[in-house]
Amino acid sequence: MNTHSFAFSFLKKPVVTICLSLFCIATANAQAVPQDDHIYQGLGQKEGLSKIVDSFVSELLADQRIAHYFSKMDRHHFTQLLNDQFCELAGGPCKYKGKDMSDAHEGMGIGNAQFNAVAEDLQIAMEKNGVSTSISNQIVAKLAPMQRPIVTQ
Q1: Which end of the chain is more exposed for a tag (fewer CB within 10 A), N or C?
Q2: CB 27 within 8 A of CB 126
Q3: In 9-146, which residue ranges form alpha helices assigned H by DSSP?
Q4: Separation of alpha carbons 64 and 37, rounded Å
Q5: Which of 27, 16, 19, 76 has the alpha carbon at shortest distance from 50?
Q6: Residue 85, CB-side half-sphere exposure with 13 Å CA sphere
Q7: Backbone torsions φ then ψ of 20, nearest 5 degrees
Q8: Count of alpha carbons within 13 Å of 18, Cβ hemisphere only?
Q9: What is the pLDDT of residues 115-150, one digit of tens each?
């Protein structure tokens, strides 16, 4: 009996099947690409995001250029939607369940000036909460594609 035959002669079919199955599962799990959450981490996870969003909503309401767009909103509901949306975009564990941006802003007549004012207010909120410039730029880059469905004027 050669060395290879002897080494594997004790293996029975069920054992081989179980071992191969476990190997396949381990290999599949090892090949799964983990979600990149460095932006989420840089924003301070849920606690940090909550502080940023609270600051952001306060900025929006105080900004005379755009405050009228938010005058009739349910602040609690809006804040929760923003938390979930930013968390998901940043690679966190949240799922945004609100309307798509086109439907959410339909009929509002938003132009580039208003969109840019919102972006400025977000930057201010992140600065107030100690978010690094790198992380701030990365989340803004993820939000930038929303301009097309939001800006209609």
Answers
A1: N
A2: no
A3: 13-31, 38-42, 45-62, 75-89, 101-104, 112-128, 133-143
A4: 34
A5: 76
A6: 17
A7: -65, -40
A8: 5
A9: 999 999 999 999 999 999 999 999 999 999 999 999
- Would you state the pLDDT for residue 108? 87
Alpha carbons 115 and 149: distance in angstroms, whole number:
11
Class of domain 38-150: mainly alpha
Amino acid at 103: D
On whether the pTM is more than 0.70, the answer is: yes
Structure tokens at 80: 């929760």
Tens digits of residue pLDDT in 61-120 = 999 999 999 989 999 999 999 999 999 999 999 999 999 998 999 888 899 999 999 999
Give me the amino acid identity at 130: G
The domain locations on the chain are 1-32, 38-150
d(CA 8, CA 125): 64
